[in-house]
Amino acid sequence: MERTTALYDRDAYRTEFEATVLSSAQAEDGAFRVILDQTCFFPEQGGQTADRGLLWREQDREYAATVIDARIADGVVTHICDRPFLPGDRVKGRISWQRRLDFMRQHTGEHILSGVVCGRFRYHNVGFHLSDHGVTVDYDGPLDEDQLREVERAANEAVLRDLPVIAWYPDKQEIEALSYRSKKELSGAVRLVSIPGIDLCACCVPHVRHTGEVGMIKVLSMIRWKGGVRLSIACGQRALEAFTQKQRVLAGLTDLMTAGEEDLADNVRKLRQELKESKARCREAEGQMLLLRAGEIPAEQQNALLFVSEADEDSVSEAVKALTARHPGISGVLCGDDEQGYRFMLGSPGRDLRPLAAFLRERGVKGGGSSDLIRGFGRLPKAAWETLIKEWNGPDI
Ligand SMILES: [Zn+2]
Q: How far is ligand 1, taken at its centre, from the CA of residue 46, in Å?
């Protein structure tokens, strides 16, 4: 099959084209693989998702197929369509321009950012991903917060200067004299994309004509990635959407906290401290209440099981200690209710409790522990726990 003439390569702003169908076949997934002599559809490559759009018969406007994807292999572009064509059909095509323009903005924005990073820190772009959902770019060296802001500021300065973005195929002599960024060793004709003073990079993807068209370049997040960093970025309308979204979140928070944006962090810190202190007071009261209830169980009772709805681990542990000091059989605290089941901690002053844990496990209860203390969880009602403990230990006096 002859290489497809890549119209997207010559003119990134062209949205409509005419072509001849060279082949059309249905694949196993049910979709149709359509090959044309030329196309404006940029196929998925270089980390970027393909264009979407329509193809229709020149003679029959009603017969239109949606292009849901496009792929390239050995220079041949395959359009993945929801309807077939016949070899020899004359067709017209139109790409989804809003989406293409958005992708061009993100991609040129990435080149500006990567050019700045490479120029200042000699780090290279070693991974790139651009789809409808987001843009990420990986660099092979670390950046701190201040360096990141400096890079972002310089990238946006390049946008505001509205520099030209030039794509061309240099001849062999010219390319040997140039130093450019490239993610891999390239064979065949190399397409270079230049932003004077900022970046020179080998790239096969459509770009905007001037940096001003990119709009704001905003780094949304930075994480450590394989010895370097991974940035999530947004350009143009995506940057605006991200800003609006953050504003919405902030407005919700300032409303909730009845505080200005600049006081939010202090207010939340204060709240967290208050919450921590309240929780501590609550735990203390809970612990005292558990001990009081433990003390109310008659001392002559052999087993002493205390059922509560909720209590923290330390309070339960203290209560179990108090119970086992007063009762010779099996004592413990069970937290929960009949519907959800009970989390238990059981102790005994003299008996090895590991066989009890095994006995309970045989009845669907999860848990285990040491000879003098076992814990776990079981979906049994209160009455069943009391019966099981009596059964194992013998009845109360
Ligand atoms: Zn590129």
A: 7
